[in-house]
From TrEMBL:
Keyword Transmembrane helix found: yes
Basic and acidic residues bias spans: 1-17
Keyword match Membrane: yes
Compartments (UniProt record): Cell membrane
Organism field: Thalassobaculum fulvum
Transmembrane domains' residue ranges: 40-61, 112-138, 241-264, 289-313
Keywords: Cell membrane, Membrane, Transmembrane, Transmembrane helix, Transport
Domain ABC transmembrane type-1: 110-310
Cellular compartments per GO CC: plasma membrane
InterPro entries, sorted: BP-dependent_transpt_permease (IPR050366), MetI-like (IPR000515), MetI-like_sf (IPR035906), OppC_N (IPR025966)
Alphabetized Pfam families for the sequence: BPD_transp_1, OppC_N
Family, per entry: Belongs to the binding-protein-dependent transport system permease family.
Name by which UniProt lists this protein: ABC transporter permease
Length: 322
């Protein structure tokens, strides 16, 4: 009896082909579907992208370079926003006590805050993930030492650890720090205070992964433990770490602003968001409200948008919440 295979072939040819490129797979994934179905997440992503692009191309999008003293007009200091009675059209958000354009300082300040935030998150994530995987895979005394150290550090507020590190460095250098050294100190201080949360999460995930068959098989064929941790365990514990890193970016930006506001972060000549808020706070009750209001608004918008992205990523990567 003859079998008609043509309909089967036609049906097979009508099936949609799986996307071959990485971009095609992303656009066809559940993650992208979840992202496009959330207007709040899309808005947060657009706001975050706007901050990143403005910070990246700050010299091209700002009317003034606040780092260049030659571009400052000290006679225009304390100019109110352009829409007020005494405002000037070239200063849309007004000027500060040095005649710097507030809009320009916000863009350059966001650049420094994002730089410190990304660097601090990268530093703390690398340190915490390394120690977490090591403690979870090796176990024994190494695990006890690392986890008890993390527990002790978690009992101390991160801001106090950052203040202590900043104070030790200032004593060693003998006073004020320049911009590059201040950025390095902030990155290390914030990173040191945040590594335990990465270590605890990766350690728990490693305890689950190390008992699975693929890890046992890698041990049997003689793969070095370092390569097992790097090639096999690390990719499988990165999901929760990405969520923590996204939310940690917002916390790192706020920590930088807090330290700069307290006077132990960036120097007054460097317009980070925290420094701008601290400078504007000195003139808040004398009527120059815009000097501190707009930096506060920029900081809240940046931290809120990054936090919303982190919340969406946590829900999207957790199958129990789908």
């Amino acid at each position: 009896m003859a079998v008609d295979v043509e309909p089967r072939r036609a049906a097979a040819s009508d099936r949609p082909k799986a996307p071959s490129s990485a971009l095609g797979r992303l656009l066809d994934s559940d993650l992208w579907w979840s992202f496009t179905r959330s207007p709040v997440t899309v808005t947060a992503a657009v706001v975050t992208l706007a901050y990143l692009l403005a910070a990246l191309f700050a010299p091209l999008v700002t009317p003034q370079n606040p780092f260049d003293p030659a571009s400052l007009v000290y006679a225009d200091a304390f100019t109110p926003p352009a829409w007020t009675e005494d405002g000037m059209a070239r200063y849309l958000l007004g000027t500060d006590d040095q005649g710097r354009d507030i809009l320009s300082t916000l863009v350059y300040g966001a650049r420094i805050s994002l730089l410190v935030g990304f660097a601090a998150v990268l530093f703390s994530a690398v340190l915490g993930i390394s120690l977490g995987i090591l403690s979870g895979y090796v176990g024994g005394f190494v695990e006890t030492l690392i986890m008890r150290t993390a527990d002790i550090q978690l009992t101390v507020p991160g801001i106090l650890i950052a203040l202590m590190i900043d104070g030790v460095v200032r004593v060693q250098v003998g006073g004020e720090m320049d911009e590059k050294l201040a950025i390095m100190v902030l990155v290390v201080a914030i990173g040191i205070s945040d590594w335990p949360k990465y270590a605890r999460v990766t350690r728990g995930a490693t305890l689950v992964e190390r008992n699975k068959e693929y890890v046992q098989a890698a041990r049997v064929i003689g793969i070095h433990p370092f390569l097992i941790m790097l090639r096999h365990i690390l990719p499988n514990v990165m999901g929760p770490v990405l969520v923590i890193a996204t939310i940690g970016l917002a916390l790192a930006i706020i920590s930088e602003a807090t330290l700069s506001f307290l006077g132990v972060g960036m120097p007054p000549t460097t317009p980070s968001l925290g420094t701008l808020i601290r400078i504007g706070n000195n003139f808040l009750f004398s009527g120059e409200w815009w000097i501190t209001f707009f930096p506060c608004l920029a900081l809240v918008g940046l931290a809120l948008s990054v936090n919303l992205l982190g919340d969406w990523l946590r829900d999207a990567l957790n199958p129990k919440l789908r």
